[in-house]
């Protein structure tokens, strides 16, 4: 009995209206998506309801699976669909197959609004009683994960799948396209490490740019530096910003609405191509290279960043896991070296990312290692920076003390 039960209520579907009234077309879609997900079709039944008051009737259908079932009902008068996918995990864990089937069907109906529920079934005292287990891959053979006892929301934005979850350990947590992004409990590991090494190394940062960072965590850290007069935040997905404003105030502390912040909902490459020089700091707070942010990890984009940096300015970005993604980290370092004269790699373990993570401060002039701990502390004190949970004067230099395997990835080819 133990298994995963997924349900979805879809409203205002923007798909071809025939998909909601043509049983043959709907059945073909469900069969193909089921087989593509790796599930086993054993029988099926479809029924089209008669027209009512001049409106076409909807369709009800069910696929019986060796693993359990898929049920679907359409409501053409409301452009609505209800979906029900249940898989048994007694012999094998079919959860990923069920997730894929649901994801593919959701993409096909293009609902403007949706409600999605997940229920772990059939094991009264098993791990499912402690919350929904979500896993993420670090590479082809390594995975990690967390349990969440509440789903606050889930939606398909124009760019990615957005989930907001909650657990006693992590608090509210943002997930995009199946990748953990930030959580209330551990965000300081990433955001403080991303922002403060370069910001403290800069003697007087006034203008800054964040590309990505729609959760507002990086902006909140950067605004702790009182010299910041203007911060531009360029985020592709407006719905990330909306969710952050409504649900992630513990992370951004209202920074997204600070008067010093200018919000631009725009593609980062498009913004940089038209931007005027003068930024003291640029932070690339992006999803990984295999996501829609991929074009922002190229030499052309890095050269655009270099063009708009003020003299003495620096670019900061994350490179990935130096253990699990060695080729990616090595390749990124070489690309950055082709553009900037200085590439200073550093690293921090980030619990939500399941690994030790590589970042870099790159510049033609700014060297974050030029400050000793006393100088770092003097700048922290002079700027009145408090509420730091990770970063301090000793940690500043320690972040750049690299293990040999990671250091080797940064060496020139």
UniProtKB/TrEMBL annotation:
Chemical reaction(s) catalysed: S-adenosyl 3-(methylsulfanyl)propylamine + putrescine = S-methyl-5'-thioadenosine + spermidine + H(+)
Alphabetized UniProt keyword annotations: Autocatalytic cleavage, Cytoplasm, Decarboxylase, Lyase, Polyamine biosynthesis, Pyruvate, Schiff base, Spermidine biosynthesis, Transferase, Zymogen
One biological process term in Gene Ontology: spermidine biosynthetic process
Active site annotation, chain numbering: 285 (proton acceptor)
Similarity remark: Belongs to the spermidine/spermine synthase family.
Pathway: Amine and polyamine biosynthesis; spermidine biosynthesis; spermidine from putrescine: step 1/1
Pfam families associated with the record: AdoMet_dc, Spermine_synth
EC category: transferase
UniProt EC number: 2.5.1.16
Protein name listed in UniProt: Polyamine aminopropyltransferase
Domain PABS, first and last residues per copy: 132-364
Entry cofactors: pyruvate
InterPro entries: AdoMetDC_C, AdoMetDC_fam_prok, AdoMetDC_N, PABS, PABS_CS, S-AdoMet_deCO2ase_core, SAM-dependent_MTases_sf, Spermi_synthase
Binding site for spermidine: 191, 215
UniProt GO MF annotations: adenosylmethionine decarboxylase activity; spermidine synthase activity; thermospermine synthase activity
Function: Catalyzes the irreversible transfer of a propylamine group from the amino donor S-adenosylmethioninamine (decarboxy-AdoMet) to putrescine (1,4-diaminobutane) to yield spermidine.
Residues the record lists as binding S-methyl-5'-thioadenosine: 160, 235, 267-268, 295
Top-rank taxon, per record: Bacteria
Summary of subunit composition and partner proteins: Homodimer or homotetramer.
């Amino acid at each position: 009995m133990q298994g995963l039960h997924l349900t979805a209520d879809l409203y205002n579907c923007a798909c071809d209206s025939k998909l909601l009234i043509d049983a043959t077309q709907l059945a073909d879609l469900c069969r193909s998506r089921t087989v593509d997900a790796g599930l086993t079709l054993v029988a099926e039944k479809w029924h089209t309801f008669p027209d009512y008051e001049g409106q076409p009737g909807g369709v009800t259908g069910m696929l019986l699976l060796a693993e359990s079932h898929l049920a679907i009902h359409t409501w053409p008068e409301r452009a609505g669909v209800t979906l029900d996918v249940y898989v048994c995990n007694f012999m094998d864990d079919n959860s990923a197959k069920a997730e894929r089937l649901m994801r593919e069907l959701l993409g096909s109906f293009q609902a403007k609004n949706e409600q999605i529920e997940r229920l772990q079934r059939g094991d009264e005292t098993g791990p499912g009683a402690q919350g929904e287990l979500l896993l993420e891959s670090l590479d082809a053979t390594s995975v990690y994960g967390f349990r969440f006892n509440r789903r606050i929301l889930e939606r398909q934005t124009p760019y990615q799948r957005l989930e907001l979850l909650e657990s006693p350990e992590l608090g509210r947590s943002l997930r995009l396209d199946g990748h953990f992004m930030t959580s209330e409990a551990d965000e300081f590991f990433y955001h403080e490490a991303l922002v403060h090494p370069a910001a403290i190394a800069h003697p007087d940062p006034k203008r800054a740019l964040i590309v990505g960072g729609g959760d507002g965590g990086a902006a909140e850290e950067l605004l702790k530096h009182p010299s910041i007069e203007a911060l531009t935040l360029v985020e592709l997905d407006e719905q990330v910003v909306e969710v952050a404003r409504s649900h992630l105030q513990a992370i951004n502390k209202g920074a997204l609405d600070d008067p010093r912040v200018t919000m631009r909902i725009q593609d980062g490459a498009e913004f940089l191509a038209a931007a005027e020089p003068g930024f003291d700091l640029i932070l690339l707070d992006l999803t990984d290279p295999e996501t829609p942010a991929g074009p922002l990890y190229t030499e052309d984009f890095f050269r655009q960043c270099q063009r708009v940096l003020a003299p003495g300015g620096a670019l900061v970005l994350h490179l990935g896991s130096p253990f699990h993604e060695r080729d990616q980290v090595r390749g990124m370092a070489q690309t950055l070296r082709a553009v900037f004269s200085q590439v200073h790699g550093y690293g921090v373990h980030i619990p939500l990312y399941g690994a030790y993570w590589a970042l870099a401060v790159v510049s033609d002039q700014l060297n974050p290692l030029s400050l000793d701990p006393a100088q770092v502390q003097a700048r922290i004190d002079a700027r009145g920076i408090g509420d730091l949970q990770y970063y301090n004067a000793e940690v500043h230099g320690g972040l750049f003390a690299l293990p040999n395997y990671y250091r080797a990835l940064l060496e020139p080819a």
